[in-house]
């Protein structure tokens, strides 16, 4: 069995990854830590910074720096979790893709490789209701989906 764990850098996705350790041990499963970098998010952050600072002539430079910071942050998160899995002697790998979050997750989740998808109940925004991502993918993911609170 293979388990796909969605990692977005939030404490909720880290909690989901920790919960998946027990599942992986019981099922002798392999785990893939999966993240999507969305260029639209980097562009929006750069635009907001530009609008607040009034330095819009450097917008492309800010986009590039934000994109680089986003990638490093998610790589650091994944590597931290990967180290924990290795310490537990669980087969684990990481995967980062670029694109639209919903489409990339659905493509990976529905690839036929996974017996279970695990995700945190909330994303980075920490909104008090179940995350918007769950609303976007919940009915379209074919494998069972475990949402960790």
UniProtKB/TrEMBL annotation:
Domain UspA: 2-149
Coiled coil (UniProt feature): none
Domain of life, per lineage: Archaea
InterPro entries reported in the protein's UniProt record: Rossmann-like_a/b/a_fold (IPR014729), UspA (IPR006016)
Pfam families according to UniProt: Usp
Stored PANTHER family: STRESS RESPONSE PROTEIN NHAX, USPA DOMAIN PROTEIN
Family, per entry: Belongs to the universal stress protein A family.
Stated name of the protein: Universal stress protein family protein
